[in-house]
Amino acid sequence: xKLRVLFTGLFLTILIAGCNQKEKSVDNINNYSDSLxxxxxxxxxxxxxxxSNVKSKYTKTDSTIKFPVIIVxxxxxxxxxxxxxxxxxxxxxxxxxxxxxxxxxxxxxxAFGEPAEMGDSFLVGSGRGETDEALNPGKIxxxxxxxxxxxxxxxxxxxxxxxxxxxxxKWLLDEHTK
Length: 178
Prior knowledge:
- With 178 residues, the chain is an alpha+beta fold.
- The protein has one helix and seven strands, in the order αβββββββ.
- The chain has two domains: 1-60; 69-176, Immunoglobulin-like (Sandwich), CATH 2.60.40.
- A four-stranded antiparallel sheet has the order 4-3-6-7, covered by helices on one side. A three-stranded antiparallel sheet has the order 1-2-5, with no helix packed on it.
- The chain is elongated and about 105 Å long.
């Protein structure tokens, strides 16, 4: 009889402890779920801020900057055997010096106004290209860069970010945007 009472007491203790443990684990799961929701919300806000900062970098160019090479036109061109697109730039040397090389940068969006695949694997919406074809003062050049975009619909801005002249001097956009 004593043994039966002892086992019954032990069984009830284990049962009650198990129920309490389940309540604790449900609370832990709920707390973890809330924590994940907060983390996802924070990541979405961070992602949104990064995207808006990238776009503003390309759209808030100071109009007083004297670019030695200006973009005459920029357009997306469809690849011959796919629905992917590349970027074509037409540019002009408006400086008084012969240009030896140019580095370009651009920003584009998809049909929803969101950053598109534009060739940069790190910053969605942006891309870069360069040419080392010489360009005399007042002359126009053009080039097409492979960005292999599946969702780009429009180019928001394209510009020269570095220009190397035949006399060895350089023009850097970063030095004019500080």
